[in-house]
Amino acid sequence: MSTPQVITCKAAVAWGAGEALVIEEVEVSPPQPMEIRIKVVSTSLCRSDLSAWESHAIFPRIFGHEASGIVESVGQGVTEFKEGDHVLTVFIGECISCRQCTSGKSNTCLKGEPVYDYCAVSSFSEYTVVHSGCAVKLSPLAPLEKICLLSCGVAAGLGAAWNVADVSKGSTVVIFGLGTVGLSVAQASKLRGASRIIGVDNNPQKCENAFGVTEVVIKCITDGRADFSFECGWGLTVTLGVPKVKLEMSARYGLLLMGRTLKGSLFWGWKPKSDLPSLVKKYLNKEIQIDDYITHNLPFDDINKAFNLMKEGKCQRCVIHMPR
């Protein structure tokens, strides 16, 4: 096998907060030990990409983390992947060998040093290099142009409802925010047998297209009495969004004494390599659906259109198709 060389390819580079991305040529280094280089096939725009792009993050930067692709080359020591494998990228790794991965109690991998790109992926590029722990091997039967949504958005809602909240049959669920994540919570809650799934959003367009919920309102109608809620409510509250500004939280002690529970969910309780293949299998078996979340399919050259659509609240997921 020949030694991988530097690849020159096109990437969408963000040069400043809120500035239009510029498609230009970049050099992608060969994979280093325990890394793989991926030819990105499809990548979708996530709200966290937009939030980081609008903030004073590190620039210049290549955003993107929900992606599917094909392994182009592997670095020294990689045995799990080979050239030609279909993969899903993930922003939280699973090396399978560190103390956290083997504990059975955590999905926070302790592998290596932090990677200063975006979410350890940077998929708004024709090629990208990731740690082998940040990729999940896919069945070649899984459609790459759709399955990329399981990198983050759809997996977020399913995991928050099933793993973190453990939504029960007959319960009432309130979902604040009817984007892809919120509607995935609705799908998961419906599959668990929730009797009422109330969607709350201040965007009329999102309310009109809120499939999977039983009721859609602009304000909460439950008087705070929901068995499960996502952002606020009574009982169990699960946080799964990315805050734009204030990272600190405070709460009245009395609320905890009354039995309210607040839970966070890093990667929503999933262990990527251990659990995501089961979600792919559910999709292939038509047990869960992904297709309806995709409202726009755009060529790579139109990536700025995807950002504008999300900024204006006119889309669920835009899937960006890379040049073949």
From TrEMBL:
Stretches assigned to coiled coil: none
GO molecular function, one term: zinc ion binding
Cofactor(s) needed for function: Zn(2+)
Matches recorded under Gene3D superfamilies: Medium-chain alcohol dehydrogenases, catalytic domain, NAD(P)-binding Rossmann-like Domain
GO annotation, biological process: formaldehyde catabolic process
Domain Alcohol dehydrogenase-like N-terminal positions: 33-138
Keywords, ordered alphabetically: Metal-binding, Oxidoreductase, Zinc
A cellular-component GO term for this protein: cytosol
InterPro entries: ADH-like_N (IPR013154), ADH_Zn_CS (IPR002328), GroES-like_sf (IPR011032), NAD(P)-bd_dom_sf (IPR036291)
Assembly and binders: Homodimer.
PANTHER family given in the database record: ALCOHOL DEHYDROGENASE, ALCOHOL DEHYDROGENASE-LIKE 6
Name of this protein: Alcohol dehydrogenase-like N-terminal domain-containing protein
